[in-house]
């Protein structure tokens, strides 16, 4: 006979102590009550313990204090400290819908081949004039497959529920990744032969915050480059390797664009123009604009600032929230940090 909770909820709390209470209250308000929660304080700059104190009387909550080695290590340590056969993720500033655990557990328990089930989310907070669905910006329709996740035709929202057996089989998150670790996780699970699914209902409220890790487009893109490089090596000889290679090239192109743009906007036009030229060669309009910048360097920064008409890789979302699409949707869903 089974003992212990059915699902362990992992709650990273770095830098969000002032919002943690709302997240944990949304967990207490679940229709499904057979859970435990591991709240991770990995050297946060704010007082996570004080924010956690009001929940300490609920034996289902535990506070795990550890040194700071990044969000991947924090999650892995919390997973190791948890006990349930299923693991769910809740960022310390996000909110579960009351039916989240009930719906997600039903979905993953219905098919033993599933490693994970994710869902849609409602985005609110910084940069959002009105609540908006995650799927309104990032493709989530259709089946989950390795090819579609690699190609960013299918974006997996990080507040997913996972089968511990599958997580253990691939070794959890990659501790070496400082960004894009969620994309890496989905790719490795699918490459190992596990399945995934996405519920169309928005069962999470995702809070956008200025200044979070997800606002750093370049860091996310560099992380994506590492993920696709890893995927290409792991998929050697498989049909999906070509997709990983193509997406790696797209990410590297986007990094060059951002670097060139930063140099030009910082006043170093001579160093920035070659990077922009290398990042985008296809469009006649871009070649004309590049010619103008070369002939009149003083106009370069102006042209970049007012460049909606330019065909180069689009900038990340202007509200700097990080769930970004650079023309080819190379950037994964970010982890806030």
Report on the structure:
This protein is an alpha/beta fold. The chain folds into 2 domains: 202 residues, Spore Coat Polysaccharide Biosynthesis Protein SpsA, Chain A (Alpha-Beta Complex); 91 residues, no CATH class. It is 39% helix and 16% strand. It has 12 helices and 9 strands. Strands 1, 2, 3, 4, 5, 6, 7, 8 and 9 form a 9-stranded mixed beta sheet that branches. α7 packs parallel to α8, α8 packs antiparallel against α9 and α9 packs antiparallel against α10. The longest helix is centred in the C-terminal third of the chain and has 25 residues. It is globular. It starts with 6 loop residues before the first strand and ends in a 32-residue tail after the last helix. The C terminus is likely disordered.
């Amino acid at each position: 006979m089974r003992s212990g909770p059915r699902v362990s909820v992992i709650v990273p709390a770095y830098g969000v102590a002032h919002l943690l209470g709302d997240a944990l209250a949304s967990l207490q308000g679940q229709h499904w009550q057979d859970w435990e929660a591991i709240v991770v304080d990995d050297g946060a700059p704010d007082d996570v313990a004080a924010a956690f104190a009001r929940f300490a009387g609920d034996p289902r909550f535990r506070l795990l204090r550890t040194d700071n080695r990044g969000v991947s290590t924090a999650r892995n340590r919390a997973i190791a400290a948890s006990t349930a056969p299923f693991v769910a993720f809740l960022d310390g500033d996000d909110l579960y819908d009351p039916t989240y655990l009930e719906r997600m557990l039903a979905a993953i328990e219905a098919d033993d081949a599933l490693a994970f089930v994710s869902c849609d989310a409602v985005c609110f907070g910084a940069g959002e004039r009105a609540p908006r669905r995650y799927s309104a910006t990032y493709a989530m329709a259709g089946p989950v497959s390795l090819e579609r996740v690699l190609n960013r035709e299918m974006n997996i929202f990080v507040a997913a529920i996972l089968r511990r057996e599958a997580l253990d089989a691939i070794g959890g998150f990659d501790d070496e990744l400082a960004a894009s670790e969620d994309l890496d996780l989905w790719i490795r699970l699918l490459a190992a032969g596990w399945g995934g699914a996405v519920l169309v209902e928005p069962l999470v409220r995702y809070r956008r915050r200025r200044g979070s890790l997800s606002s750093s487009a370049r860091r996310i893109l560099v992380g994506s480059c590492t993920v696709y490089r890893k995927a290409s090596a792991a998929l050697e000889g498989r049909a999906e390797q070509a997709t990983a290679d193509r997406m790696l090239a797209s990410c590297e192109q986007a990094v060059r664009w951002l670097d060139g743009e930063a140099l030009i906007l910082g006043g170093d036009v001579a160093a920035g123009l070659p990077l922009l030229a290398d990042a985008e060669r296809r469009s006649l309009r871009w070649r004309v604009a590049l010619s103008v910048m070369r002939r009149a360097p003083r106009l370069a920064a102006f042209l970049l600032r007012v460049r909606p008409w330019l065909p180069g890789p689009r900038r990340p979302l202007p509200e700097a929230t990080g769930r970004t699409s650079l023309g080819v949707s190379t950037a994964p869903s970010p982890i806030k940090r």
